[in-house]
Amino acid sequence: WFINLSRSELMQADLVRRLTKSMESAQLSRPDFIVLECKESDLARRDPRISANLAEMKKWKVGLGVDDYAFSDLPLKDLDKRGVRFLKLSSQMTRNLDQAPVRELV
User: How far are the Cα atoms of 5, 71, 102, 105 from residue 99, in angstroms, in the given order?
Assistant: First the structure.
């Protein structure tokens, strides 16, 4: 299950409480099947509230996904450090994949 979160939702003080309460109410036995998805720019902000919420959700084994990833705000090397399990590439990254010479690189 992918749950898209906006920047304002990621910064909410009660985010973890609400998500864990929902997981418990739904009797989810596999929280690792849940992926919180946020934009690359939100993750790159290094806002302490966002970092704290994501670190707490990681303790629950909830995954993290990055939507609209374009390599602009967050280097690939930082993704593993932050526990990112999924990437959705920005359309600007995939727009011309069917054209040479890009096709040869892929």
Answer: 33, 20, 6, 10
| b/e 49-64 (16+ beta carbons within 10 angstroms → b) | ebeebbeebeeeebbb
- Distance (Å, whole) CA 70 – CA 66: 10
Round to whole Å and give the CA distance between 102 and 2: 30
Which residue, among 34, 44, 40, 37, has the nearest Cα to 9 in the 3D structure?
Answer: 37
Return the amino acid letter for 59: K
Residue in this structure with the two tokens 């096709």, named with its chain if needed: 103
pLDDT tens string 43-98? 888 899 999 999 999 998 999 999 888 877 788 888 888 889 988 888 877 776 66
Return d(Cα 103, Cα 101) in angstroms, integer. 5
What end-to-end distance do the CA atoms of the chain give, in Å? 29
